[in-house]
């Protein structure tokens, strides 16, 4: 009885990783192209945008919140950044301003939730629609093209450093920083505590509103960072960019074992979750499985992850 | 009385994964008897009840119902035989009416049509309440709008409506006001007259002496004995529970009060309390007494910055203090041990260590980065100082007994080296042994100059621990008494609004 419990407990921690490894081995057998360096880097680059958003989402979900607006926020942030670029602004400055805009839009989510006392699901459902609408108004429904030819800006989405795609380096860099923040800083500890019991946290002196606003702001910024990568890759900002991205991000967090009730979870799990989603897409593509079936498989994996997690409790 | 007891449990043994939690326990109860089941937390009371009602299976031993051996494998089966449990967390669905609550799971319908027979149910509900002598609950009231005491009555009435012959009440008075406790006792009395047996689980000795006929004591899973309540006194029971003489209930207290350290002027919050003026001295324990709902908890929550005050000023060491958030109070050196440990005091799913760290981030971090070394040292030091009994700092708080949980809460506040510590019902749900330890900690703190404000609904505790006693009546200070001039009667009179 006890051993069995312990097994499931350990399994739930390692479950996603084991699942990922099994999938990778399986695909290695099924497709000769899977284990090529090109394909691996391609896969990592594909997941980098979702992973960045999912990292932010991990913080939000740890506080027992949710952010549905990430996709729209990504589109709005990208469009505004593209607007600055096509206006001739220095690319580094434009990107930094874009990130700042993301931070601000995310903070607005946080303010509505904390000061307005609106449930996160409802608040971000509303801003999801508002941000998307604002994007369409700003772009007039058309892609923004004619961006800077600057090497720096091209680098963000298309560049390589020592043969590694730059978005991958960016994603891993952000991962390391956030891993440290969650594990070793006061802020990280407060994020967990709020998700565990907000009232008790406030009574222990934690400024819960401030932490929550910070968490949504962080997610907003990371979403725009993902948007900038996409914009650079396509050399244009699409008004429909990021549609349904919130679902992949939430899926990555949940597959990674973070509880939607808050207070429990790890960012490493989210990285693995994003990889699993990426591997499913990539592998099924290589095996020429129709994209219709891919969705069924993805949904099945999410269910499986949650069911295994339930079993361990 | 009948020769065969209604329920007889004999030689009950139970182990969980090799850990024996009940050793040869006996228990029997007659019809119309009120039988107290006492013991420190972890003594095995709940396990015994769970075995009686079929939630757990016994390893050894017999349970006889009216002389016949029974073997319940599910609480439903026990219910069918007339054994009902009223848990501390009530089984009430808040947005349903009293009638709907009473008939959950056994709705009356017209034949097999599935159409509810509301009229009859309403009538029966009324009859059930009347049978208990409860007149202030209406069948159409929304259950969630009623006080905890009334909700409890609904559950008892529900139990009777299924012809319960034995009702187990687990800490039934923990959340009741004094008046509600009185009506509960009336109900217990009428149950007794109807021949219903009651198992009464409680930490409150005063209540047990008032309403129980028999008392059975468990300690560490062992059966210590059963006595007629008239044959024993408080000391004897405590000795049976703890296994040794506890000595005085309250440790000796030296008066060490110094200068005034904390002062409250004209504090008010609309509809809750007003004109609150008082001060606390260094090394002093100020007891705050009053009836439940008098506004005491709201008052201390406001002082701590958890709720916005409407009016009033706070002074610490003569300096005015601006408290807009608990973090401001903590910065000034004020700690607050909340009344509701599970929902406001602890992160129950988190480790002991995490809980202790939470209030002490400043001292264990630099520029927002936590030093693992400093953290471990602080946690170890505080756990040691408070003698927290646990497998280690990584143990989850919810796995601890009430007393140990409370020690963890105190530990997390001692880390900030408080100048003023506010305790709201510090010994609720804490067993006798741990209670005394908590009083000793308070004494030790005051010896070092810490001022303490202690809100408590237990009069013996107020009288046994405080240097001065402030009595609150309907949101106003009724009187402030020195320890030597205070007695139970004076406090109760003031609390009830008398002169």
UniProtKB/TrEMBL annotation, chain A:
InterPro entries documented for this protein: ABC_transp_permease (IPR001851)
GO terms assigned for molecular function: transmembrane transporter activity
Membrane topology recorded in Swiss-Prot or TrEMBL: Multi-pass membrane protein
UniProtKB keywords: Cell membrane, Membrane, Transmembrane, Transmembrane helix
Transmembrane segments: 12-31, 43-61, 92-112, 119-139, 159-182, 213-232, 269-286
GO cellular component: plasma membrane
Record-linked Pfam families: BPD_transp_2 (PF02653)
Subcellular localization: Cell membrane
Recorded superkingdom: Bacteria
Keyword Membrane (UniProt): yes
Record's keyword annotation contains Ligase: no
PANTHER family named among the record's database cross-references: ABC TRANSPORTER PERMEASE PROTEIN YPHD-RELATED-RELATED (PTHR32196), RIBOSE IMPORT PERMEASE PROTEIN RBSC (PTHR32196:SF72)
Descriptive protein name: Ribose transport system permease protein
Lineage: Bacteria, Bacillati, Bacillota, Bacilli, Bacillales
From TrEMBL, chain B:
Listed GO MF terms: ATP binding; ATP hydrolysis activity
PROSITE patterns: ABC_TRANSPORTER_1 (PS00211), ABC_TRANSPORTER_2 (PS50893)
Mode of membrane association: Peripheral membrane protein
Native organism taxonomy: Bacteria, Bacillati, Bacillota, Bacilli, Bacillales
SMART domains associated with the record: AAA (SM00382)
Chief place of localization: membrane
Alphabetized InterPro entries for the sequence: AAA+_ATPase (IPR003593), ABC_carbohydrate_import_ATPase (IPR050107), ABC_transporter-like_ATP-bd (IPR003439), ABC_transporter-like_CS (IPR017871), P-loop_NTPase (IPR027417)
Gene3D superfamilies referenced in this protein's UniProt entry, alphabetically: P-loop containing nucleotide triphosphate hydrolases (3.40.50.300)
GO biological process, one term: monosaccharide transmembrane transport
Domain of life where this protein originates: Bacteria
Official protein name in the record: Ribose transport system ATP-binding protein
CDD domains to which the protein is assigned, alphabetical: ABC_Carb_Monos_I (cd03216), ABC_Carb_Monos_II (cd03215)
All residue ranges annotated as the ABC transporter domain in the record: 7-245, 256-499
Keywords: ATP-binding, Cell membrane, Membrane, Nucleotide-binding, Repeat, Sugar transport, Translocase, Transport
Gene Ontology cellular component annotations, sorted alphabetically: plasma membrane
Subcellular location: Cell inner membrane; Cell membrane
